[in-house]
Write a structure and sequence with these properties.
heterodimer; A: 59 residues; mainly alpha; 2 helices; flat; B: 374 residues; alpha+beta; 8-stranded antiparallel sheet; 12 helices; 13% strand
């Protein structure tokens, strides 16, 4: 059996990247307009896209 | 993770979620139209139309605007003047019978800053959008309603954290994003609940926590009045009540002099809850994008027009200021509003699927003699 540590990263690495992206998205639009707004659309767009993709996929 | 640990977290997740779900559904459903309140008010024709005039048309001074307001609503006093960046030719005006009248009994409208003409803003005083807003803010139950919703928000945060902990044992053998389609409806929704829950985690946490902070705004303002404000106006404690106020004409210039680089956000008139009995408070906002959400009050003696103090901002007032954009999602244009609405709907799906999973598991856990008999 693998050590628990690797299990943790296997499960949480992708969600962690998404969480950091969303956090960057939430924060960036507070800093300015234009490029900062666009960054926030990407940061919040990724989780929205992944969730909708999961919902729409039918086997 | 030991199975006993999993059972404990599972218990926490189940019950914190179940208790807050009804309220969270109410908040998510009422929050949806509120994201677009500006656009909806325009569609309903409730947004005031400020007249087109040449850009160099002279503007009235604040004392003239106070006069115009009092002429428009005789017998009432001005509580607040607000300034909005996207409508520089109008001043948001809030009036009531007395300066201390509670916010829900006040009347809000706009004054044309050049003519003093009053422009009604019906959606700020009644109608469908205000009804939805009250449902969202306090369920028409005042402070107890706000505090109940704040508590539900805290349960929501605990549910999110415990859900994240449980994500590990559930996903140990699955690739990220797996949605099992062929096994059963329950497994499909379990996977979707985990997937949507984990990707919307940060957003839901931020909107949840900032919602809790906003729901506690009344308490934060009371705390600010008690420590910061009362210390600053201590010398005025025994002063007799003011019978007339010095004219408001130069308030903004006075405030700009002591708060360079900042812009006025709103003026609280003497006797309102954002000021003292003896002061005009001019709330100045920072000059940069980020600091424009942080307010610094300048207290101006309402009889001598001398500056009494430029207040320090306690951290909790800054937290309250930053919570507003992060809760409303109104700081990144229309694409952000659409994403905000999408994430809100996704949260509704997570809430709904959570209830569904609980019901299904309960049915599976015990035999149902009644159903068998029927």
């Amino acid at each position: 059996m693998k050590p628990r540590q690797s299990n943790f990263w296997k499960v949480f690495s992708t969600p962690l990247v998404i969480a950091l992206l969303s956090a960057a998205g939430l924060f960036s639009a507070l800093l300015g307009d234009g490029i900062w707004d666009a960054l926030s659309w990407v940061g919040l767009g990724v989780p929205a896209f992944l969730a909708i993709k999961g919902l729409l996929r039918r086997g | 993770m030991k199975s006993k640990t999993i059972r404990r977290w599972s218990f926490i997740h189940t019950w914190t979620s179940l208790i807050c779900t009804v309220f969270l559904l109410l908040l998510a459903l009422t929050g949806l139209p509120l994201i677009f309140h500006h656009e909806i008010e325009h569609l309903l024709g409730d947004a005031p139309q400020v007249r087109e005039m040449p850009a160099d048309t002279p503007r009235l001074n604040l004392a003239q605007l106070v006069e115009a307001a009092e002429k428009h609503r005789p017998g009432e006093v001005v509580q607040y003047f607000g300034f909005e960046d996207d409508e520089p030719n109008a001043v948001l005006t809030i009036m009531a019978k007395t300066a201390g009248t509670e916010p829900n009994s006040s009347h809000t409208f706009m004054l044309d800053a050049r003519t003093g003409e009053a422009l009604e803003t019906p959606s700020a005083n009644g109608g469908l959008m205000l009804f939805i807003l009250r449902l969202h803010v306090d369920m028409f139950a005042g402070l107890p309603g706000k505090l109940l919703l704040a508590f539900m928000g805290l349960l929501f945060v605990v549910a999110i954290i415990s859900g994240t902990v449980l994500y590990l044992p559930f996903m140990r053998r699955l690739q990220f994003g797996t949605v099992r389609q062929d096994k059963s409806t329950r497994l499909r929704w379990l996977d979707l609940h985990n997937l949507i829950g984990v990707v919307t985690l940060t957003w839901a946490l931020v909107v949840g926590v900032t919602g809790v902070i906003s729901a506690c705004a009344d308490l934060l303002i009371a705390a600010w009045r008690n420590d910061t404000l009362s210390a600053m106006v201590a010398p005025y404690r025994d002063a007799p009540p003011l019978t007339r106020l010095a004219p408001a004409t130069r308030l903004l210039d006075i405030a700009r002099d002591v708060a360079p680089g900042m812009n006025p956000d709103f003026i609280a008139f003497p006797g309102t809850r954002f000021s003292s009995e003896h002061h005009y408070s001019v709330f100045m906002k920072g000059g940069t994008h980020l600091t424009s959400h942080l307010l610094t009050p300048v207290l101006i003696d309402a009889s001598t027009l001398q500056v009494t103090a430029v207040a320090e901002r306690p951290w909790y007032m800054d937290a309250m200021g930053m919570s507003q954009p992060l809760h409303f999602g109104d700081y990144g244009g229309m694409p952000m509003k659409i994403l905000w609405a999408t994430l809100d709907v996704l949260t509704i799906i997570v809430l709904g699927s959570g209830v569904y999973l609980w019901v299904v598991r309960r049915k599976a856990a015990k035999p149902l003699p009644l159903e068998a008999a029927a």
